[in-house]
Task: inverse folding
């Protein structure tokens, strides 16, 4: 049995997917690479088949009609045979030294008596043209090099929340939690980093810069103009997160606090994008999103709305909106995201 299954969702990825796959092949026979060709119309299909033919014991090419990023991740989970599971987007890549350390830890865990639900590592913003690469580390918040639970995880802060890029889940946990991502919807990576959390009991943090998160293509989903154009999909994901958190009962106070913090970040991103668009229609959508949160979960609405971010982002006044956008620009410059 493979230790790690890695799903690589691909849609018209011929220009960059080989760099991604080559970086994953370093894992050798301990790894299963699932190239999910999501209805591509370029050379992605041929490239995927070529890798499968060359590395038949490592690479599996899966071809499907277009279902979007969420549908491709769902397919990856359904077909994974490895004990652990990770998503690596086709325009990103991993560093070999960190990769080997992660595989060593997972191999030790598999041989040991304890069950590990989630392995966490660092990721790096590989922003095109940037001289300084921003590394997202968790060393100040999480115990390093050992098992721990939510009660030992300190507050991660507003800029160090866990993204899909930093997470490797136990495969069976993803099936147990019933995670089914919406199809034809962008920004579902936030759901991957949110929905399984109530099922996570044991974690392990490895302080290595494993995942390289590329930012720079004009057509990327995280490009600001693209995000504004797809704001309805961002809102859909945001509302699914609101619904899911509202359904969770009996969470530990540490986990609930973290999930509320994460939801606050996504509410902030959604709100800023709608304010940045400058249209009255999107400003009304922003107000509607905050009303939705209040209607679905009044307690969480109160916590988020009256926090530092919520007070600014939920503002209906022009000065308040200007402050929100300015704060976003400062954070954008400091942390290097798009």
Result:
């Amino acid at each position: 049995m493979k230790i790690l299954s890695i799903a690589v969702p691909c849609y018209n990825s011929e220009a960059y997917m080989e760099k991604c796959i080559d970086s994953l092949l370093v894992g050798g026979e301990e790894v299963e690479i699932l190239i999910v060709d999501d209805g591509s119309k370029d050379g992605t299909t041929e490239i995927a088949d070529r890798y499968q033919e060359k590395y038949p014991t490592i690479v599996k090419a899966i071809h499907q009609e277009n279902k979007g990023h969420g549908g491709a991740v769902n397919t990856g989970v359904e077909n994974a045979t490895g004990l652990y599971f990770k998503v690596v987007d086709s325009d990103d890549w991993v560093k070999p030294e960190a990769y080997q350390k992660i595989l060593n830890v997972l191999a030790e865990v598999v041989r040991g008596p304890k069950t590990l639900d989630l392995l966490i590592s660092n990721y790096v913003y590989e922003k095109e043209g940037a001289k300084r690469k921003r590394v997202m580390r968790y060393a100040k918040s999480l115990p390093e090099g050992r098992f721990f639970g939510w009660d030992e995880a300190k507050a991660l802060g507003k800029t160090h929340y866990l993204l899909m890029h930093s997470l490797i889940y136990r495969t069976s946990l993803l099936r147990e939690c019933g995670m089914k991502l919406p199809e034809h919807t962008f920004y579902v990576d936030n759901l991957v980093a949110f929905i399984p959390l109530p099922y996570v009991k044991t974690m392990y943090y490895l302080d290595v810069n494993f995942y390289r998160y590329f930012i720079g293509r004009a057509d990327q989903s995280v490009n600001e103009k693209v995000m504004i154009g797809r704001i309805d999909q961002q809102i859909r994901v945001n509302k699914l997160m609101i619904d899911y958190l509202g359904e969770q009962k009996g969470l530990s106070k540490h986990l609930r606090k973290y999930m509320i913090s994460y939801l606050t970040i996504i509410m902030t991103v959604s709100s800023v994008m709608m304010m940045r668009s400058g249209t009255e229609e999107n400003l009304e959508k922003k107000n509607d999103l905050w009303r939705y949160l209040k209607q679905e979960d009044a307690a969480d609405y109160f916590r988020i709305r009256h926090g530092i971010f919520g007070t600014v982002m939920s503002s209906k006044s022009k000065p308040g909106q200007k402050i929100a956008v300015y704060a976003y620009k400062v954070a954008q410059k400091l942390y290097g995201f798009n």
Remarks:
- The radius of gyration is 20 Å.
- Residues 253-277 form the longest helix (25 residues).
